[in-house]
């Protein structure tokens, strides 16, 4: 009789037949920072902190020491610096360029990824520039994103990661980076970023929710799958180095589909709402946080993600150290 259970009989055999590994080397830790000297717990995201520069450098060092190869930065910008033209996004003395420089000085081998989008700097809270009628201006936004990316590149970023979903931005960013000889700086593109209810806690952390309307003219409709394949083909043709699907769990089919059509590495973003669903259920004593987080992240890898952006990155690294 054919008995699949033979391959599950002992932990040793299960290890031999295991198809998917989740290790710290696959994880990217998103980190929030702000201008102040204090490290502020984020009310909307238990377990996460809005770091000062000094706190950020220390936290990134701890993550790196745990085997996490990369971090991605998200700045909380003072309301007084937010404008409709978003100039603070490419201020060479701004929070992000100073953070990149401090991180690279303290941890030269840590990969520093920066988010390229205007929402933290935008008086309107949108990822793109907005005209008087509330219309998102695609092509002027792409020019602004290029200025922002160059600012990050000059400060020493390793990878820039456009999360804005404007058309044509990957090609424009590649050309802008190359024009200043930043030919070695990679682009990790948010390829299929859906208009999701899962971003609420993140927007609370940065106070970056759109002041009017929603993001549905640029972020994708959760109902669409073929459209994600189209975005993937475009980003690949425009020169992206890594493609991303976001959020992760409700879109594992999208991850799997994109895996079938591109040779590029894939990232998935297990976003703030996904993290909080686990945290909230665990805080109520309703589920086992460690088991559920590990199962979710392993499933994201199985579906096709090479790397995962997750607020659980340090926890996972610690859990793996204590019980490999
Ligand atoms: C915005 C951005 C968002 C996230 C990353 N970059 C939110 C949004 O699009 O409104 C969400 C990440 C998360 O929820 O963890 N450029």
UniProtKB/TrEMBL annotation:
GO terms, molecular function: porphobilinogen synthase activity; zinc ion binding
Record gene name: hemB
Family annotation (Pfam families): ALAD (PF00490)
Pathway linked to the protein: Porphyrin-containing compound metabolism; protoporphyrin-IX biosynthesis; coproporphyrinogen-III from 5-aminolevulinate: step 1/4
Subunit-level organization: Homooctamer.
EC numbers on record: 4.2.1.24
Species the sequence originates in: Phragmitibacter flavus
Protein name as catalogued: Delta-aminolevulinic acid dehydratase
Keywords: Heme biosynthesis, Lyase, Magnesium, Metal-binding, Porphyrin biosynthesis
Chain residues that bind Mg(2+): 231
Active site feature: 193, 246
Biological processes per GO annotation: protoporphyrinogen IX biosynthetic process
The reaction(s) this protein catalyses: 2 5-aminolevulinate = porphobilinogen + 2 H2O + H(+)
């Amino acid at each position: 009789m054919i008995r699949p259970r033979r391959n599950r009989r002992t932990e040793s055999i299960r290890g031999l037949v295991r198809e998917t590994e989740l290790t710290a080397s696959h994880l990217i830790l998103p980190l929030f920072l702000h201008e102040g000297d204090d490290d502020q717990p984020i009310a909307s995201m238990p377990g996460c902190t809005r770091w000062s520069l000094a706190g950020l450098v220390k936290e990134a060092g701890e993550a790196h020491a745990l085997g996490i190869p990369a971090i991605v930065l998200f700045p909380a910008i003072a309301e007084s610096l937010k404008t409709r033209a978003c100039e603070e996004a490419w201020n060479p003395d701004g929070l992000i360029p100073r953070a990149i420089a401090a991180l690279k000085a303290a941890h030269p081998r840590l990969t520093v990824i920066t988010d390229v989008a205007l929402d933290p700097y935008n008086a309107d809270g949108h990822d793109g520039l907005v005209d008087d009628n509330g219309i998102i201006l695609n092509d002027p936004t792409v020019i602004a994103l290029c200025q922002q990316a160059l600012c990050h590149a000059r400060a020493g970023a390793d990878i820039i990661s456009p999360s804005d979903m404007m058309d044509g931005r990957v090609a424009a960013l590649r050309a802008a980076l190359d024009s200043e000889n930043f030919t070695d700086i990679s682009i990790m593109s948010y390829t299929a970023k859906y208009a999701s209810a899962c971003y609420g806690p993140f927007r609370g952390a940065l106070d970056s929710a759109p002041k009017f309307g929603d993001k549905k003219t640029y972020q994708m409709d959760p109902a669409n799958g073929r459209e994600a394949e189209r975005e993937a083909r475009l980003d690949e043709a425009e020169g992206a180095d890594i493609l991303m699907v976001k959020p992760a769990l409700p879109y594992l089919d999208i991850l799997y589909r994109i895996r079938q059509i591109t040779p590029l590495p894939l990232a998935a973003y297990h976003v703030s709402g996904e993290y909080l669903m686990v945290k909230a259920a665990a805080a109520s004593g309703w589920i086992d946080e460690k088991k559920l987080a590990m199962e979710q992240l392993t499933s994201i890898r199985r579906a096709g993600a090479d790397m995962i952006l997750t607020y659980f990155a340090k926890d996972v690294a610690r859990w793996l150290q204590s019980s490999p």
